[in-house]
Amino acid sequence: MTFVTVIGAGLAGSEAALQLAKRGINVKLYEMRPKKTTGAHKTDKFAEFVCSNSLGSFDITNASGLLKEEMKLLGGELINIAFENQVPAGSALAIDREGFSKQVTEIIKNNSLIEVINDEITQIPDTPAVIASGPLTSDTMAEAVREFTGCSHLHFFDAIAPIIEKDSINFDKAFYASRYDKGEASYINCPMNEEEYKKFYDILINAPRIELKEFEKGAKFFESCLPVEILASRGIDTLRFGPMKPVGLVDKRTGEENYAVVQLRQDNSAKTLYNIVGFQTNLKWGSQKELIHSIPGLEDANIVRYGVMHRNTFINSPKVLTPFLNTRKRKDLFFAGQLTGTEGYTESIATGLLAGINAAKLILGEELIELPEETILGALTHYISDESHENFQPINSNWGLLPPVELPKKERKNKKLKAEIMAKRSIELLSVFVK
Hints:
Elements: E1 3-7, H1 11-22, E2 26-30, E3 54-57, H2 63-73, H3 78-84, E4 86-87, E5 92-95, H4 97-109, E6 114-117, E7 129-131, H5 139-149, E8 154-157, E9 163-165, E10 175-176, E11 188-192, H6 194-206, H7 228-232, E12 250-251, E13 256-257, E14 260-266, E15 273-276, H8 285-293, E16 303-305, E17 311-315, H9 317-320, E18 333-335, H10 345-364, H11 376-384, H12 415-434
Parallel strand pairs: 1-2, 1-7, 2-6, 7-18
Antiparallel strand pairs: 3-5, 4-5, 8-17, 9-15, 9-16, 10-11, 11-14, 12-13, 14-15
Helix pairs in contact: 1-10, 2-10, 2-12
């Protein structure tokens, strides 16, 4: 009997299992809870929401909302269950988390094609499989993944810097340059005078931080990826001799070397997203926003991803995965969920959906699907499988991942119009694609 092993009954694994079963494929679904806990989960139910009970906006002019609409078009199972368990939360899809998990668990356990095995799996199967063991993958399974992917392709802690949408940067203040004019002027630089730097520093050292959970305490970070607030605590000039050093960065418009400089590095091939160099942080998001908007040139910056530092096992997907979400090394081995380097509940379900569909197609001898880059899910899977990434870090769905759209000059700052056009383009393309 041909079957697919799915490891992990979280959001991604549950969706993948249901997609496989829907296509007549037998599934062995492994879930180590309740025999072995993660330190974060509270129940033995499948698809448990650990932190928030919100899946984010369902408005299609929001990137997360469009992703939900795409999942519906692709025949997603969990997204429909989420709406059935919806609780009032404005334009956000918040759910009764207990009702949601209970319903998902019952549907899976009553599916004759899915065999649930409550045990820890410690090795990667040599048969077709979807690994969706999540950011809190057990040590033994993580070691197996490390062995398969290579030591340099598995990470255990996020050390993420914020990402900014390029169109929201004020280039009356910011400028392109590389240090000492070496190579192409590929960095965006935001210069500061002494007064601006001291204001920035004051916000930074007084900003509240996110508390680590109990199972994250004792985390050790490399010196090269310390939180920016820890570096700043070593002295007022530490950043000026570190990630914000102005040496060799001269704005040709003024000919002056500045007191401090914040650099932004290109983050995607479309050159629509830039990350703030050396700004991995554990500050609360409201504080991050205040801090970033205090930087000259970033006063109106659209922040598409905030910095985080927490335990999160994820693979270096650009070196490991294809846009189909199977591995370059082994075509019948798929990854899904946060283990792929996607952030967010919605994104976990979506990657489980695509991995489940493609794993089934592989078994059935059908052509695997690669979604258009103009769709949110297509853009997301292309981003995490883009081999040109040298410093890959997890990301969630955002407009900056999509190919840009041309707007009339007077409308270029109209974010709502831009989102509407992108959403319409995605839905039309995906509708044709599905047919």
